[in-house]
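Collaborator request, handled under Task 6.
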Amino acid sequence: MSYTTALQKTLRSHIKVQHDGLRYNCDLCSFSSTGQSSLRLHIRTKHEGVQYKCDSCGMNFAYKGNLRLHRKVVHEGKKIKCDLCDFQAAKGQELKNTRKRTMKESVTNVTNASLKQK
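Structure tokens returned to the collaborator:
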């Protein structure tokens, strides 16, 4: 397996994390991360109690991205629609996983049905 990147900085970071085992450890618990920004976010949300509150309904979120997704899906009604069926998802990854699972189940069902016919 090989890793390629156009940026020297990204390559150095990859080598430190993947090959040298660089980890950033939380001094307050057993959490560790491969990035300083992830550690800072962890400390803010888990130990300093930073919360992001929804202006519309008052729900609290530890992560700003979760608040944005909540607003988009719950208050704006925006979802990603499947072009193969009526399914709607809040996140692209959710749609991708559902499609993968559904397609795998469909193939399995077709295969099982054809085996029973023989």
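The cover message to the collaborator said: "Residues 52-117 form a domain with the Double Stranded RNA Binding Domain fold (CATH 3.30.160.60). The first helix runs from residue 8 to 19. Please let us know whether this matches your experimental observations."
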